[in-house]
Specification:
single chain; about 300 residues; Rossmann fold; 3-stranded antiparallel beta sheet
Length: about 300
């Protein structure tokens, strides 16, 4: 069976160095293996996602020198998300939840990804007589207890009991959109994804996604989680925290120069000299990619690696 990879950025702002590093590693993994590579633009957030960000993301990745075999917009898969919810409802797994985020935060119980762990408060509630589509409340899925062991290549031990660690996850949000974890696993299955290469910040929820796959009878990919670029204060570089966007970077960097910096930060090159993704491809090995996260400072006109690997 042919391998299929995917890169799935959210379309809530411009690409930043962390986005570009994740895209580069995903591209190198797929192209070095002769795998098909899908770009999935995750645009389900009705508040933060905007159509112009989708177009900019595509242009930014192309500017760096990355190409894809297919491009998907997540909102276009709404029918597939609804079909998955139909299957979960038919299996008696869905229920509406009246708990607010503030109520859950007040309990002080955290899941492995830093979100509030759900204690099962509304687990005994039934769906409305007219079905899940008529519910004005978020919907959760009942998980069965038991350990899940995802297939992971980078050496992380991702074994976990998602029901104990997370509680029952939301699968449809209050605004009617499919929640992130459900949409992600359904879209991966639709695209035939066999490999998921992504940042280590997403590793804690991998077993939860595998548990959802098993409830839906979906195939399970192989995962590989890689290092992150961090801010000096410790969090990962992210649009939410105002990480420098590509527009500012392009004013000072040509694409090969920025690609060379990213390759150096990842451990693929001993120096940050200019390189294109195509030039990195022939010698690409995961064994050369560093395990430790790297701290990055934006000191115009340059990005600077701070200290030794974190």
């Amino acid at each position: 069976m042919a391998e299929v990879g995917r890169f799935a950025p959210s379309t809530t702002g411009p690409a930043h160095p962390g986005t570009l590093l994740a895209a580069l590693l995903c591209w190198l993994d797929a192209r070095s293996r002769g795998a098909r590579l899908v770009l999935r633009l995750e645009d389900l957030d009705p508040v933060r996602s905007r159509p112009e960000w989708s177009g900019r993301m595509r242009r930014d990745l192309a500017w760096l020198g990355l190409d894809f075999d297919a491009v998907e917009e997540q909102h276009a898969a709404a029918a597939a998300h609804a079909e998955a919810l139909d299957r979960l409802a038919a299996a008696g797994r869905l229920y509406p939840c009246a708990c607010t985020r503030s109520e859950l935060r007040a309990r002080g119980e955290l899941a492995p990804d830093g979100a509030s762990r759900y204690p099962g408060t509304c687990r005994g509630r039934a769906l409305p007589a007219a079905g899940w589509r008529s519910s004005p409340e978020p919907l959760r899925v009942r998980l069965e207890p038991g350990e899940v062991a995802p297939r992971e290549e980078s050496g992380l031990d991702l074994r976990q009991d998602p029901a104990r660690a997370f509680g029952d996850p939301v699968v449809r949000r209050r605004d009617g959109a499919a929640a992130y974890h459900l949409a992600s696993v359904v879209d991966d299955a639709r695209a035939g994804v066999t490999r998921v290469v992504r940042g280590r910040d997403l590793a804690p929820s991998t077993a939860l996604q595998v548990a959802l796959r098993r409830l839906l009878g979906l195939s399970e990919p192989v995962y590989r989680h890689h290092l992150l670029l961090l801010e000096e204060r410790g969090g990962k570089l992210a649009k939410l925290h105002g990480a420098v966007g590509l527009d500012a970077l392009r004013a000072h960097y040509a694409a090969p120069a920025l690609c060379g910096f990213l390759a150096h930060a990842a451990g693929l090159r001993p120096d940050p000299g200019p390189r294109t993704p195509a030039e990195l491809l022939s010698g690409f090995r995961w064994a050369d990619v560093g395990d430790a996260d790297r701290v990055v400072r934006w000191a115009p006109p340059r990005l600077v690696l701070v200290g030794s690997p974190a």
